[in-house]
């Protein structure tokens, strides 16, 4: 069954001539047509483009010009600008927006020979933890269609779990790759801030946003990151640090690896079933020869309040470009310029985006800027300092990716703050700009649980190595939801 | 308690040029007040002498030579604009 293979296995199959990229792409397109009605994980399908790209990939392979992801069918989060294809960011505001250019990430995938099957559903402008804020309808979790897939990269997580694409991309501002990866039982990596270009990735909170791969295995994530990572002159926050081959260290032993468990990640608020799974995953590492140490991140409790100043402030500024003038939704018959702005934005944005714009506008307004934004930038540094101190003692930090398994659709929609707390273990990592991963670690009440790995700045290769070693000893990452086997 | 009332929400919404339905204002007032209460936890943290962190790697703005690097791509960029004429974006009349 082609759809159950990892990218690494598919590449071998393509190279051996067992199947062509056109056949492989058609297999996925057929599966999506058959199965995605249950999930709603795509906003836009691009079958013609996919088959054309697959044909080109096959021709390139025949000519001996084989890119890293030659012929591999991927799904792209609808936050990445894709030339000539609708790029909605989950919003009514960008319903009419056909991007005139490609994001750097998309160009990199195109150059690597990858195929794009379509654009995945997401929380509106990446603001949400359940995919319920999408204007295009909620995505359902392939493990239980009454449950959410997590968010904001919920569509991207669902397609990988349901084997509707070989892999996908996500973006992570406060947990939007790791939390849905945990909820859907897949591997998700948020790289170090600045590692992957943000050019053409619609901005939410510019000092936090980072794109990364969502895959079945750590090995596949390493391959995807080889394509995505790198310095980009078009993104002023992109960092000029050499990109290693992320596959090179996958097989290093974890013997003697020092793993820190922050006691704050195992206290009140953590679901018992999740705690049990995480404890047994840590035991697995102990069996492999890793050394486990309890550590403390005393300021981690400040992460959620700090984030809910910084992220809304930056979003209120970023989203001011959605004004109904140059692109996107415009209201009917504006009576003057102010009316044009107010009604276009009022009609185009959903309630969660409006809440965050309002919070950010308030926090940045005259007289409040120092009390909110500057104060949060200071507590942000304290949070970052805590991680730096912890990394003096340990190589990798581990804990749960989320406090619970996937909750049910509608369960938290009336309670924004409880929804925000589902990112309690992931947000601090974005504030500190560190790389983080979620990998499948087991099940609680038949729903997947993700183990979070946190590394030092630019230690993606270490995280991928540590994740790969776990995946060699366990088979949680190979489990597929029954309805999508 | 940093409770926001209806007129606060209306004022903030106008600053953001963000239309909000009259009937939804009370709910926004409640949500926003709850969020501001949650972030009030930060008030109790001593941050004297802490330098605000704007970039997680403390990078500074990169500068480049002031030369033209992009070609004029106006037609392509305006292809999906709501309303244009002669290469200009159209909006309702601002000055009588």
Task: Describe what you observe in this structure.
The complex is a heterodimer of chains A (485) and B (96). Chain A has 485 residues and is of the alpha/beta class. Chain A has 15 helices and eleven strands. Chain A is globular and about 65 Å long. Chain B has a domain of 39 residues: Orthogonal Bundle (Histone, subunit A), CATH 1.10.20. Chain B is mainly alpha-helical and 96 residues long. Chain B is flat and about 55 Å long. At the A-B interface, helix 9, helix 10, helix 11, helix 12 and helix 13 of A face helix 1, helix 2 and helix 3 of B.
Question: What attributes does this structure have?
Answer:
heterodimer; A: 485 residues; alpha/beta; Amidase signature (AS) enzymes; 11-stranded mixed sheet; 38% helix; 13% strand; B: 96 residues; mainly alpha; Histone, subunit A; two-stranded antiparallel sheet; 3 helices; flat
Provide a brief overview of the structure.
The complex is a heterodimer of chains A (485) and B (96). By secondary structure, chain A is an alpha/beta fold.
Class from helix and strand fractions of chain B: mainly alpha
Instruction: Bin the strand percentage of chain B.
Output: under 5%
The number of strands of chain A is: 11
- The residue fraction in helices of chain B comes out at 25-40%
CATH class of the domain at 2-257 in chain A: Alpha Beta
Low-confidence stretches of chain B: none
Strand order of the largest sheet of chain A: 1-3-2-4-6-5-10-11-9-7-8
The top level CATH class name of the domain at 6-44 in chain B: Mainly Alpha
Number of strands of chain B: 2
Distance between the termini of chain B: 46 Å
Detail the poorly predicted runs of chain A. none
Q: Under the CATH scheme, which architecture of the domain at 6-44 in chain B would be assigned?
A: Orthogonal Bundle
Order of helices and strands of chain A: HHEHEHEHEHEEHEHEHHHHEHHEEH
How confident overall, as mean pLDDT of chain B?
Answer: 92
Helix content of chain A: 25-40%
Chains forming the largest contact: A-B, 72 and 53 residues
